[in-house]
Specification:
Two copies of one chain form a homodimer. Chain A is mostly helical. The first copy, chain A, has nine helices and two strands, in the order H-H-E-E-H-H-H-H-H-H-H. Chain A has helices at about 5-10, 15-25, 45-60, 65-75, 80-90, 105-120, 130-140, 155-170, 175-210, and strands at about 30-35, 40. The first copy, chain A, has a two-stranded antiparallel ribbon with strand order 1-2. In chain A, helix 3 (about 45-60) packs parallel to helix 9, helix 4 (about 65-75) runs antiparallel to helix 5 (about 80-90) and helix 5 (about 80-90) runs parallel beside helix 9. The first copy, chain A, starts with a helix and ends with a helix.
Chain lengths: ~210, ~210
């Protein structure tokens, strides 16, 4: 079934000006021209893509450039599946520091690499997470905290348990075409939920501790 | 001790054009004019503030507007301490959906409120986390996942343990002036670290599961 932009707006909960903006930015593929002049028509694919964009934009708080990289990866049928996952995952990462790594970040990176090795985690040398942890550790130190990479231990424990559970509960037969979207949605949406729950739990435990 | 912009750049690892941009955007207070014409001089306060901005920008991936709201809260000496924490915490939150809550978000909100009540968490009715969870749950449902708020259970368990640990390990006598900065840094930097570790743990467990 096809629909006009007004129905697409009603069913998605996204305003017509916002839909037009996504069309201009080529996040949403153009509708098919219909017989009536100046009236494009849209299908279920458009509705689903619009919901994905809104989830990344509103829930994931991703900017338009990053959303474009993610949907480009989802649409790139030429990439083999395991590369697709990597490309989409990397599109989600924030851009690297334009000023490049400083000496203290390079130093922190050595500590982070050793920390991950001690955890026994098998992750690629160029996984963006390594650089993020190094930048974070260096930032903590610059702000006057005298800490080693083991400051991340409780976070690594929590992440390890969660990731194990998340991987275990993927249904065995997800169609290949949906796998990337599923990964993107799972990464971004549950990340946001975890952050919201951590802040709510802070409020709850602060109130109990009287701080 | 005071320094010129070149030394401020060298010690902070932030380029001079980036420092000038932060000065123009009033994220960084102006330096003091010195005797030499057109040469402002900067102190340790500027260096520390610059490190905070860089941590929020590069590690926390916050945009300039949000960083401005956070540093404004830190600098607002008129606010009582507990309000200061709340203001800074809210400044960190992403902006609300400009299109406002739709019916399905309102429906999800009821489920989220009940979920939090069942957990026994004492959090304010208007805590931004409630709205974020409702938007997330509605987004999952719109994308075709037939889930209740209990989809968040493993994340709530992880957040509960982490937040308890984080609150317990705050040194008992942090000077009041530093408390807000400490909270902001702790929220943003460890959030980023947790996200990076979750993605690294995904890579590790995916490799082990052969998926």
């Amino acid at each position: 079934m096809t629909m006009r932009i007004s129905e697409l707006s009603r069913r998605s909960g996204v305003s017509i000006p916002t839909i037009k903006y996504y069309l201009r930015e080529r996040l949403l593929p153009p509708g098919e021209s219909s017989s009536a002049a100046n009236q494009a028509s849209y299908g279920e694919t458009h509705l689903h893509r619009l919901r994905l964009i809104r989830a990344l934009r509103v829930v994931g708080d991703l900017d338009i450039d990053r959303i474009r990289r993610v949907v480009d990866a989802i649409d790139d049928v030429a990439l083999p599946r395991h590369e697709l996952l990597g490309v989409a995952q990397r599109a989600l990462e924030p851009p690297a520091d334009p000023d490049g790594p400083t000496d203290d970040v390079r130093e922190a990176r050595v500590d982070v690499d050793q920390f991950l090795e001690e955890l026994g985690w098998e992750v690629a040398e160029d996984a963006p997470g390594r650089a993020i942890l190094a930048t974070t550790l260096a930032a903590l130190r610059r702000l006057g905290r005298d800490v080693g990479a083991d400051v991340f231990t409780p976070y690594a424990d929590a992440a390890d348990r969660l990731a194990w559970w998340e991987i275990e509960t993927i249904p065995p037969s997800v169609p290949a075409g949906d796998a990337v979207e599923r990964m993107v949605v799972g990464t971004v949406l549950f990340e946001r939920a975890l952050m919201a729950l951590r802040r709510l739990a802070h409020e709850h435990h602060s109130a109990r501790a009287g701080r």
